[in-house]
Amino acid sequence: MNNYIKSLEWRYATKKFDTSKKVSDEDLNILLKSIQLSASSYGLQPYEVFIVTDREIRKKLQPVSWGQAQIIDASHVLVFANKTQINADWIDGYLENISKTRDITLESLSPYGDFMKSKVLALSPVEQAIWTSKQTYIALSNLLSAAADLKIDTCPMEGFEADAYNEILGLSQKGLNAALVAPIGYRALEDDTQHYPKVRQSKEKLFTHI
Fold first, then answer.
1. C-alpha torsion sign, points 181, 187, 190, 191
2. Domain 3-86+121-190: which CATH class?
3. CA 157 to CA 17: how far, in whole Å?
4. Interatomic CA distance for residues 100 and 92, integer angstroms
């Protein structure tokens, strides 16, 4: 079996982490790089990721995470926060980054910038927030796959109170909203969930060849 598929078979949403094991700085940097390299619409990456290790902050986050123990027990807690609004200045900043990185003129990027603005800025504030939130799921997927390759466990979460996260982490004043949470670390031996057969739709039901 392909090693990548083996890694995906190995991973599961970890319910209990081994509190004695921590993800090394080296491996953490690989995981963060996988997020940084993630695909996103137009390449805009309209989100930020917060790596929470502070125990006191995590104690505040646990009650608003449906009491889930992973928030406390995991090595690190990653919070994906989407930008709630995109404006022309933000897109211009992205174009400047392209210009600098690829050593090309801003003028040559003008048509691309105009196209992005015509699409993104035409969205209502609610539509923008939904769109940027969707981008965080792409980044999360990269994290899950990279972590599985390193045999690092993860537990992607939507079960938390976003407004409370925004308040505790000071996200709202930064124009951000907590969209996803991903504790990372190493599974505890007593987590029986790791032994459950993986339940997925059959290929016949999931895929349609046209």
1. positive
2. alpha beta
3. 15
4. 12
